[in-house]
């Protein structure tokens, strides 16, 4: 187990006012400008994926990280003001970039095509996470983790990046530095170093459960979610609409329509999770709940989607049976329609599935 011993020395600039303060308050100048940090950290050959270093502001987290991890410390960069986020994440395939963005909780295509400067603090934070995971080395150390976002976004984003690392979306180890203790259970680190006590604690904490409450709602509730849908801002006035609440706050919306020509079938036509809550798996669990509700009422539930996250979920879930998987979209030309897929799905996978769970 390596031990890190760092002496942080601040230069002393003697002036008349500095000497005045030292005299007025009996401040030992040389002593107060020197700080020693001693800590134990897990070795590189030990089996861990996520670490967390916490402590109050000024406790030496950044100094310790620079000494212990060196080049692995992520340094935020300047994002171009005249380019979309999706164009600024390095020379990777579009599939990998969108997968990582989705994995860290930024799964809204409208956000991908906007410049970084126009995004919310929570969306910018997730862009930085995606940049660190995509372009970092085998170890990524992220300073000031969740410091610029509200605490709800901090918890959700912590859970999202933990899922991304543990699922191997990109092969990285991840260490977060933070002055906030409320993210511990949500990040689920394999080890935690608290600089307030100097103790290194091993063993994963468990994330608190996320309990969604699902209600029927009016079509008017769509107004809050419409800007975040990637295809259309409209909802059919006859749609059966549902709202998912977490801790009393709206987090997701869904609209269902009767399937044309298929009696007893309702199809999910819209599903939107607000950006601050993306990355927890809310959308997939919401769809499962709708499938259960419809089954109780004697209806079958279907969904057709081209969103990468939902496509991946439906393809692997035992609660949904994939009826069709298309790798390209429809094409209209002189010879008419050659594939029975919507024209908006050209060039991407589109899955149609039916709920077969309880």
Architecture overview:
This protein is an alpha/beta fold and 358 residues long. It folds into 2 domains: 38-202, 3-Layer(aba) Sandwich (Rossmann fold); 213-355, Gcn5-related N-acetyltransferase (GNAT) (Aminopeptidase), CATH 3.40.630. It is 28% helix and 24% strand. It is built from 11 helices and 14 strands. The chain has helices at residues 16-25, 29-32, 61-69, 94-103, 109-112, 121-135, 151-166, 184-187, 222-225, 282-296, 308-316; strands spanning 3-9, 34-40, 50-54, 139-142, 173-178, 191-194, 199-202, 213-217, 240-246, 249-258, 265-273, 300-305, 320-326, 350-355. The strands form 3 sheets. A 7-stranded mixed β-sheet has the order 8-9-10-11-12-14-13, covered by helices on one side. A 5-stranded mixed β-sheet has the order 4-5-3-6-7, with helices on both faces. Helix 10 links the parallel strand 11 (265-273) and strand 12 (300-305). Helix 4 (94-103) crosses helix 6. It is elongated and about 85 Å long. It starts with a strand and ends with a strand. Mean pLDDT is 87; it is low at 329-346.
Tags for this model:
single chain; 358 residues; alpha/beta; Rossmann fold; Aminopeptidase; 7-stranded mixed beta sheet; 5-stranded mixed beta sheet; 11 helices; 24% strand; elongated
Brief summary of the model shown:
By secondary structure, this protein is of the alpha/beta class. The protein folds into 2 domains: 38-202, 3-Layer(aba) Sandwich (Rossmann fold), CATH 3.40.50; 213-355, 3-Layer(aba) Sandwich (Aminopeptidase).
């Amino acid at each position: 187990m390596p031990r890190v011993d760092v002496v942080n020395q601040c230069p002393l600039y003697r002036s008349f006012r500095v000497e005045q303060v030292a005299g007025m308050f009996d401040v030992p100048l040389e002593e107060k400008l020197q700080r020693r940090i001693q800590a134990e950290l897990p070795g590189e050959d030990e089996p861990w994926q996520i670490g967390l270093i916490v402590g109050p502001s000024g406790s030496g987290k950044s100094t310790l990280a620079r000494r212990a991890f060196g080049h692995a410390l992520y340094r935020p960069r300047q994002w171009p003001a005249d380019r979309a986020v999706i164009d600024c994440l390095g020379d990777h395939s579009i599939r990998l970039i969108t997968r990582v963005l989705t994995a860290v909780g930024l799964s809204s295509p409208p956000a991908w095509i906007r410049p970084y400067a126009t995004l919310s603090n929570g969306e910018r934070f997730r862009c930085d996470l995606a940049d660190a995971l995509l372009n970092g080395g085998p170890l990524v150390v992220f300073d000031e983790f969740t410091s610029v976002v509200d605490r709800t976004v901090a918890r959700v984003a912590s859970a999202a990046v933990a899922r991304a690392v543990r699922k191997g979306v990109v092969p990285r180890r991840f260490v977060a530095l933070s002055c906030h203790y409320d993210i511990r259970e949500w990040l689920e680190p394999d080890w935690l170093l608290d600089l307030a006590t100097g103790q290194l604690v091993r063993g994963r904490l468990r994330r608190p459960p996320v309990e969604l409450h699902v209600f029927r709602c009016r079509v008017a509730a769509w107004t809050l979610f419409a800007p975040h849908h990637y295809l259309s801002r409209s909802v059919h006035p006859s749609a059966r609409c549902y709202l998912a609440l977490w801790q009393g706050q709206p987090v997701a919306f869904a609209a269902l329509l009767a399937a044309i020509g298929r009696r007893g079938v309702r199809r999910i036509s819209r599903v939107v999770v607000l950006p601050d809550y993306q990355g927890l798996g809310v959308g997939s669990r919401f769809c499962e709940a709708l499938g259960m509700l419809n089954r109780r009422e004697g209806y079958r539930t279907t969904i057709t989607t081209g969103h990468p996250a939902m496509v991946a979920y439906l393809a692997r879930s035992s609660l949904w049976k994939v009826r069709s998987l298309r790798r390209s979209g429809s094409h209209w030309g002189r010879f008419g329609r050659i594939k029975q897929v919507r024209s908006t799905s050209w060039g991407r996978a589109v899955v149609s599935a039916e709920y077969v769970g309880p």
